[in-house]
Specification:
Layout (H helix, E strand, L loop, with lengths): L1 H26 L3 H37 L15 H5 L12 E4 L15 E3 L4 E4 L12 E2 L6 E2 L4 E4 L7 E3 L4 E8 L5 E8 L18 H11 L6 E3 L13 E5 L10 H4 L4 H14 L4 E6 L8 H4 L5 E7 L6 H8 L8 E4 L1 H12 L6 E7 L7 E6 L4 H4 L9 E5 L6 E3 L11 E6 L51 H5 L6 H9 L3 H6 L11 H6 L6 H15 L1
Parallel strand pairs: 1-13, 2-16, 11-12, 11-14, 12-13, 15-19
Antiparallel strand pairs: 3-9, 4-6, 5-8, 6-7, 8-9, 10-14, 15-16, 17-18, 17-19
Helix pairs in contact: 1-2, 6-9
Amino acid sequence: MQSLRRIAPIILGFFFTIGSVSHISAQGTGPSANFYVIAMLIVIGSLILVSAVMLLSENFIQIESRKAGLDLNESNRTFVQSFKEIWTPKGPAYTNGAEVIDLNKGHDILLNGIANKQTVSGSIQRFSIKPGDFRELAPIPRMKVQEGDEVKAGDVLFHDKKDEKVKYVAPVSGEVVEIRRGDKRAITDVVILADKEIRYKQFDPPSLTGSSREEIVDYLCESGGWTLINQRPYDIVPDVQVIPKGVFISTFDSAPLAPDLGFVVQGRENAFQKGIDTLARLSNDSVHLGLDARSDQPPAKAFTHAQNCQLHWFRGKHPIGNVGIQIHHIAPIKAGDTVWTLTVDEVIILGDLMHKGIYNAERKVAITGACVKQPAYIQTYQGANIGELLKDQLSEGKNRIIDGNPLSGKKSSGEDFIGHKTIHITVIEEGDQYEMFGWLLPLTLRPTISKTFPNFLVPNMKFDGETNTHGERRAFVMTGQYESVLPMDIFPQHLLKAIMANDYERMEGLGITELTEEDLALCEFVCTSKIPVQKILRKGLDMMREQG
């Protein structure tokens, strides 16, 4: 495909030249005119032949280099610059001429209620860590505390019965007031009533330069830092024995109402850099940062000036900020590959563990949505109670509280707690009212990619948003809608059908190991068939993981 794209301008030039030569030939007469025509055709044909040989040679070099595990730089692998490379606009000035990965597919959902860049101190008293946030963890882990125990931030709460080495620790200090249980007595929450002043368990961090990788891994397992890392494929806590192919961190979020991660990192830049240094040590200097090139203003200096990592600039529409999309365009996950992903907050916590020797789970949580009175950031800690975060902030009426963003977040209530990775809460209207003849008279503007609605004439218009699906589940037919918004070389609709058919070989061949739910969330949004895309994908990932 790349070769065709590169040789296309040459072919077009060839036909253009033939047309020009034919025109000249028609204007001229005699042997001399015919001689010039033949000479020009020979020259053009020779150029095309040489170009084709160079392009084919480049393809063969790329294939052999991938087999040998080599990664050739752009500067020494391209014989003929592609048409796209010639005409694609250059990146903003702050990229300093670095390559910008432009993706045309995607869709930005513009909603009202984005958080103002101001931090409010919340009076949050209850916090929780949820065993259900960690896949492969037994539903009833081995508890190290019981109700009534006092803990410090960083004290062990429980560990997996299958792997006692990896510890799960308290995000705050205080009293364990409740251990909630769900179906089959599975533990859903370990609830802590926090102290007014957080007390920290003090660890003795190893030196990054003087310690072995095994010593650093043991320290992170004991202090709770290892559970901050997410392993792909399957989104699980990493195997301590495996060195990842790479570590990937997206420094921006393109989802609807997403928090500004440049604002989130303010004041903790040193911890972020220390976290990067740690990950570089654990991954043989293979850390990749995805940077935002969509704005006229540069990202935070904590990101653009980060050391011990490779910087990659991205520009486009959502899901451009998803780390899975960025991995696909930097170093796609192949069969047998293992990579790590972390959020900016997790890198910061990791940095504090290695620099200060404390598990500091402090974070800014964005409270967003049209049903929030004053959208803002609340300074709190990991696992905060949602009801206390939203106190006196909800507007009247039926509201949907979402732990995360509107596309891939989880329906929650005031009694729930934010997830292990959550720094974003969305509140929008509960869409439980039917619109009469809504499909027949599409007059009410709404977020959509359909040209049936006239709002495509005002592309910058923002909406309040609601949860109504505007229709029931229908026949799962091929529409091409998924492919139009997914900037990956994957056929999502074929993949979903392979999952539904339990076709393991086809699932793997269609690239299921590159995906997680958030990557296909936009596909679910645009789906005419109203298919639960994310639920089906997770079913397929779980099946693949169980099969080993």
